[in-house]
């Protein structure tokens, strides 16, 4: 009897062990299948040998095409580093502020590095990795008629780019302001020069850079609304690339990559009032 009971127990244990192995195999199979079906997974990117990264083409000093036809800037330098660390080539896809989300969701790009501010609304439709910059909305205006307080904007035309944090902030928090919305950074700055608005609102960091190159203008409101963070973005649910990017941001922060990137790409464009600590996040 004892021998039979022992044999029965061993048989039952063997059955459970077999089931666990089968289930484990199914789980790994599903995971492998998911990786294979995701064109932007790390596995597929390495298999193709190329990562498609969305960047701006008209936003110095973050992403633009210089006079020699080369893509340069803070985000572009980061993109090259990401591709190098993945062991692949980079293919740049130029975007505007209002089509960054669509570029991800339509599988036109794998990763967005286009001065992308993290917001609750965006987090509902895409996934942000860990941030690598901090910014806030600023307001630039002519030195001859400087805007130094938000109250001066009531009932006036303020220029913004569609799909930006500045547009979202003024729409929700300053409804008495009339917004003139444009598709690109080039269009919005031309509108300001043509006097179509009393001021222009955008991320303060590159307003400093723009006003340095355009000395007839001043960033009269250096910060309005809450502090924000700039981060890489991937398609919603792309955990493979998201996890890899999070580790990459941690590694580059510890290596002081972003401080070096700042000194090379941003410092020449900013005035003395901007310091690396105003932009670069500290090592945790």
UniProtKB/TrEMBL annotation:
<protein>
    <submittedName>
        <fullName>ABC transporter glutamine-binding protein GlnH</fullName>
    </submittedName>
</protein>
<dbReference type="Pfam" id="PF00497">
    <property type="entry name" value="SBP_bac_3"/>
</dbReference>
<dbReference type="GO" id="GO:0016020">
    <property type="term" value="C:membrane"/>
</dbReference>
<dbReference type="GO" id="GO:0015276">
    <property type="term" value="F:ligand-gated monoatomic ion channel activity"/>
</dbReference>
<dbReference type="InterPro" id="IPR001638">
    <property type="entry name" value="Solute-binding_3/MltF_N"/>
</dbReference>
<feature type="domain" description="Ionotropic glutamate receptor C-terminal">
    <location>
        <begin position="50"/>
        <end position="259"/>
    </location>
</feature>
<feature type="domain" description="Solute-binding protein family 3/N-terminal">
    <location>
        <begin position="50"/>
        <end position="273"/>
    </location>
</feature>
<dbReference type="InterPro" id="IPR001320">
    <property type="entry name" value="Iontro_rcpt_C"/>
</dbReference>
<keyword id="KW-0732">Signal</keyword>
């Amino acid at each position: 009897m004892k021998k039979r009971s022992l044999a029965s127990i061993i048989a039952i244990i063997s059955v459970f062990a077999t089931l666990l192995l089968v289930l484990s195999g199914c789980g790994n199979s599903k995971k492998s299948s998911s990786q294979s079906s995701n064109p932007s997974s790390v596995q597929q990117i390495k298999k193709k040998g190329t990562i498609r990264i969305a960047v701006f083409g008209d936003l110095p000093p973050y992403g633009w095409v210089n006079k020699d036809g080369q893509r340069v800037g803070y985000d572009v330098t980061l993109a090259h580093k990401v591709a190098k660390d993945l062991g692949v080539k980079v293919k740049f896809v130029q975007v505007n502020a209002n089509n960054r989300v669509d570029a991800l969701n339509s599988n036109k790009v794998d990763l967005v590095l286009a001065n992308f501010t993290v917001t609750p609304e965006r987090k509902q439709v895409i996934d942000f990795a860990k941030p690598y910059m901090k910014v806030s909305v600023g307001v630039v205006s002519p030195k001859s008629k400087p805007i130094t307080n938000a109250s001066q904007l009531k009932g006036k035309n303020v220029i913004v780019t569609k799909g930006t944090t500045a547009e979202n902030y003024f729409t929700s928090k300053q409804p008495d302001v009339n917004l003139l919305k444009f598709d690109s950074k080039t269009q919005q700055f031309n509108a300001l020069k043509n006097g179509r608005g009393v001021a222009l609102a955008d991320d303060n960091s590159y307003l400093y850079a723009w006003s340095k190159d355009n000395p007839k203008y001043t960033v009269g409101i250096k910060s309005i609304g809450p502090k924000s963070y700039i981060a890489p973005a991937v398609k919603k649910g792309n955990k493979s690339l998201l996890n890899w990017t999070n580790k990459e941001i941690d590694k580059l922060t510890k290596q002081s990559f972003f401080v070096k990137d700042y000194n090379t790409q941003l410092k020449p464009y900013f005035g003395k009032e901007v310091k690396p600590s105003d932009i670069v996040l500290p090592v945790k």
